[in-house]
Design a protein that fits this description.
Layout: H1 15-19, H2 30-43, H3 47-68, H4 72-88, H5 95-108, H6 111-114, H7 119-134, H8 143-161
Length: about 160
């Protein structure tokens, strides 16, 4: 005699996809996306000024280190400026700045490691960011930009390996 199977199969509902707008764009209205891209493109004329404003803030953080020494406060200020540039570089059409700022952030990200960062290497990152803007080296497809980013990343990796 066969025992009845106590298991019951319940098919999953697929209404979640409908609730989050499961269309081709995952719920993002293509017209709204196009409108946002057009607005961003319209703002692109201001990117150079905004980027220069961020560079000025980075230079001020670097000047604070030179004037007051490399303290937890000045290091935090520099880290915040680098972190901002890491996020904004590509937006401002300078993915190389994002890469260099990411290298600087990697070296100064954790407060306990931050204070061990060599100031000369911090300065090299700041000067590289300034040079990229000055010489309009926007990405690492430029041979100088690539070499600069790779060299800085290598120096950061070597420094972090000693900690």
């Amino acid at each position: 005699m066969e025992k009845p199977n106590p298991a019951q199969v319940i098919p999953p509902q697929t209404s979640l996809r409908l609730k989050v707008g499961g269309g081709r764009f995952g719920g993002i209205d293509p017209a709204a996306l196009a409108k946002a891209e057009a607005a961003l493109k319209g703002l692109s004329a201001q990117f150079a000024q905004w980027l220069n404003d961020e560079i000025t803030k980075l230079e001020a953080a670097q000047a604070a280190i030179k004037a007051q020494g490399y303290t937890p406060e000045t290091a935090e200020g520099l880290y915040m400026r680098a972190h901002d540039l890491k996020g904004l570089g590509a937006t401002y059409e300078y993915p190389l700045i994002t890469r260099i700022a990411a290298s600087l952030c990697k070296m100064t990200d954790k407060p306990d490691v931050r204070m061990k960062a060599p100031v000369y290497l911090i300065d090299a990152h700041v000067e590289a960011i300034k040079a990229a803007v000055r010489d309009e080296i926007k990405d690492d497809e430029h041979p100088v930009g690539r070499a600069l980013a790779e060299e800085l990343e290598g120096k950061v990796a070597a420094h972090l390996a000693t900690i």
